[in-house]
Design a protein that fits this description.
Helices cover 55% and strands 8% of the residues. With 453 residues, the chain is α/β, with parallel strands linked by helices.
């Protein structure tokens, strides 16, 4: 991504200097397409820093965690007050908050920006979510907007998100939602493959059709391509081991949701589904003990699966936006949910027609607390509910795991329940630990204890 961002910057009119600690990497890059552009390669860090104008704007594209701190540690002694350092990787937002504070003490302006779109997006226009030192934003705004993707309404998919770690928090939630999107798509594939006995190419055609409707998105589009791909006449999907990896942003999203007491249950199920998948040997042993599921979905149809996917997607985004709103309030970031949705309409991995409706919902009601309360989404959930239930029930009967769909409908049922069995849980807590409880006939916040025996 770093190489493609450099090429994108050069094509957009910026003078670019590049450096990699492995000299041969820089040499190979300069010997390729970069050699014909306004890009200069530096042999070492001193040459790199000396070759930049003032104030220096330095974009880091390195692995999150210790490597970022290591590079910053090498850079800072060579920089002057007012210079700008940008971390464009998937760093944990708390690390970005810390780096902002530490570098501000040295007079260095630090930005943590989320960049989504993969290698292709980096080259031709990613979605960019900038956060960090507000004083740095006016300097880099024209540079970043010049390389960003462009939304259908012509707006660049790059806008100031908030101070401190806001940009990386938004990118983290983006990636968490991405986990959820990929899981609900995978469950639809599994239901069609095992539950309906369809061949991969047939399922690919279904996804291609869905991509022409309300589910139109980058991930649905590439899923259609993947399922129709072959190798030596065999479906390529059947060649790939069913063990999904992860790099941590989904896990961070779930941890943050627990810290902020916001339910991102669908993302959690998506993370756990990858963990379950990553142990095929144990799954094979257990499959040898229990009959392999051979059931078929009894009543659910393709339209039902589409509706279940769409409804679960609504729940996933609802949970993600709730988490961002809670973090904004907790850390004083003033994140605008509608603005964030608009940044994801193009360039990023979760880009989708769906995001136009989310953007519109928040523009119509900036104080919206839950997407399910917006008329468009409440109508969509009502119309999908019967299909959603048929699919989840059919999956259970057929022995096909559908953790994201099941979690999504459980959240939906929980949020629309005026009474939940949590009163019993609180009574149990008071019984064994005198943790007290609130009463329905008294104001919130008052604690009461009952002598149970």
């Amino acid at each position: 991504m770093g190489a493609n961002l450099a090429l994108n910057l050069a094509d957009s009119g910026s003078e670019v200097m590049v450096y990699n600690r492995t000299t041969t990497v820089t040499e190979e890059f300069m010997a390729g397409e970069a050699g014909s552009k306004s890009i200069t390669g530096a042999a070492d860090l001193d040459e790199f820093v000396a070759g930049l104008g003032s104030p220096r704007v330095i974009l880091l594209m390195v692995k999150a965690g210790g490597p970022v701190d290591a590079v910053i540690g090498e850079l800072v002694p060579l920089l002057d007050p007012g210079d700008i350092v940008i971390d464009g990787g998937n760093s944990l937002y708390a690390d970005t908050e810390r780096r902002c504070r530490e570098l501000a003490q040295r007079g260095i302006r630090f930005l943590g920006i989320g960049v989504s779109g993969g290698e292709e997006g980096a080259r031709h226009g990613p979605s960019i979510m900038p956060g960090g030192d507000p004083e740095a934003w006016p300097v880099v705004e024209p540079i970043l907007k010049s390389i960003a993707a462009v939304a259908p309404d012509g707006a660049p998919c790059c806008e100031w998100v908030g101070p401190g770690g806001a940009g990386h928090f938004v990118k983290m939630v983006h990636n968490g939602i991405e986990y959820g999107d990929m899981q609900v798509i995978a469950e639809a594939y599994d239901l069609m493959r095992r539950g309906m006995g369809m061949a991969p190419a047939e399922i690919g055609d279904v996804f291609d059709g869905w991509n022409r409707g309300r589910l139109r998105s980058y991930l649905v589009e590439i899923t259609a391509d993947i399922l129709r791909a072959t190798e030596d006449g065999r479906p390529m999907i059947d060649v790939i081991l069913d063990a999904a990896g992860q790099k941590g942003t989904g896990k961070w999203t779930v941890i943050a949701s627990m810290d902020l007491a916001e339910p991102t249950a669908l993302v959690a199920e998506a993370v756990y589904a990858r963990i379950v998948s990553f142990d095929p040997d144990r799954r094979s042993q257990i499959a040898g003990v229990f009959d392999t599921p051979t059931g078929r979905l009894q009543e659910a149809a393709l339209d039902d699966v589409e509706a279940a996917l769409y409804a679960s997607k609504i729940v996933s985004y609802t949970q993600g936006f709730r988490l961002m709103t809670a973090a904004s309030a907790e850390f004083g970031w003033d994140i605008e949910p509608g603005l964030v949705a608009s940044l994801w309409r193009a360039g990023c991995i979760i880009r989708a027609l769906f995001l136009e409706e989310i953007t519109a919902a928040y523009r119509s009601d900036p104080a919206l607390t839950d997407l399910s309360l917006a008329p468009f989404f409440s109508d969509a959930l009502r119309s999908a509910e019967a299909s959603w239930r048929r699919v989840v029930a059919g999956a259970v009967e057929a022995g096909i795991p559908a953790p994201a769909y099941s979690s999504a409908i459980a959240y939906f049922d929980g949020m629309r329940s005026e009474r939940l069995p949590a009163n019993l849980i609180q009574a149990q807590r008071d019984y064994f630990g005198a943790h007290t409880f609130e009463r329905v006939d008294r104001p919130r916040g008052e604690g009461f204890h009952h002598h149970w025996v």
